[in-house]
Amino acid sequence: YLFKLLTKIELTAPADLTRNKLIRIFAIFSFATLAVMLIWYITYFPGCFGSDSLAQYEQVIKHSYSDWHPAWHTLLFFALPLKLTGGASWSIILFQIIYFSLTAGYICMVIYRYSGIRFAVISFIYMILNPYTGYLVMYPYKDVAFAIAGALCAAMGAQIYLSKGKWADKWYRGVILGIMLAQATIFRHNGILFTGVLLVAVFFIMDHKKWLVVLAACLVTMFIIKGPIYHHFDVDTSPAPVMQLVGVPMTVIQHVVAQSP
């Protein structure tokens, strides 16, 4: 919709919009994204691992999990690929590429649904052919996981807005949105700064009963992850969430004080 504001181009949905066509668009853009990301993956095989990523990898190997780096991210983006591939380190980035490709396919499908193929292709080029995107996806950082979950939430939120709340009429969509909001909240300790605002925003658009479904799904998912799942893996929970939640605001204040005493 930035195009519409800047160029006055009217955005219209395709006239022949069908469920099967949306599925094909999703598949095409997902596979196209996968193809581009695999070029990056082959070039930087098996991926790029900083100190944080090595610490998370070590947690999986030693079966000793800490929530300093969000443990749920460690379990989904490190432990799960390693478990499914018999400990192959190359699987970590490969799985992240698959998660990202499916997300990009969904986003492009949403853009196509409301704006047509031209803007879906333009958005794909901007997102996927941007070298900065490919570079970041080669790192298994929690920021990438948060971006994936956050992008899905934003795409669903956009559909709620553009459909004037009708998109959420089907109860399972609200449940999926709630589950993804929980993922984004947990993937970063300060993720609530994004998901909280989005929850408040859709409250004013959705039917309030359906909004409660989203909220309930989010809270139940967070309880299951932070409760039984973390207990099962004996995750060491420390003051990390509080420290990292206020870390960014305090850093900004520190710079202000240092530069403008």
Protein described:
The protein is mostly helical. Helix 3 (51-62) crosses helix 4 (71-84), helix 5 (91-115) packs antiparallel against helix 6 and helix 5 (91-115) runs parallel beside helix 8. It has helices spanning 2-7, 19-43, 51-62, 71-84, 91-115, 117-128, 131-137, 142-162, 171-187, 192-203, 208-232, 240-245, 247-259.
Radius of gyration: 20 Å
Mean pLDDT: 89
Q: How many strands in all?
A: 0
Strand content: under 5%
Low-confidence stretches: none
Helix content: over 70%
Classify the secondary structure makeup into a structural class: mainly alpha
**In angstroms, what separates the terminal alpha carbons?**
41 Å
Largest sheet: none
Helix segment tally: 13
Order of SSEs: HHHHHHHHHHHHH
Offer a quick outline of the entry:
The chain is an all-alpha fold. The chain has helices at residues 2-7, 19-43, 51-62, 71-84, 91-115, 117-128, 131-137, 142-162, 171-187, 192-203, 208-232, 240-245, 247-259.
Notable characteristics:
single chain, 13 helices, 261 residues, mainly alpha
SSE blueprint and pairings:
Elements: H1 2-7, H2 19-43, H3 51-62, H4 71-84, H5 91-115, H6 117-128, H7 131-137, H8 142-162, H9 171-187, H10 192-203, H11 208-232, H12 240-245, H13 247-259
Helix pairs in contact: 2-5, 3-4, 4-5, 5-6, 5-8, 8-9, 8-10, 9-10, 9-11
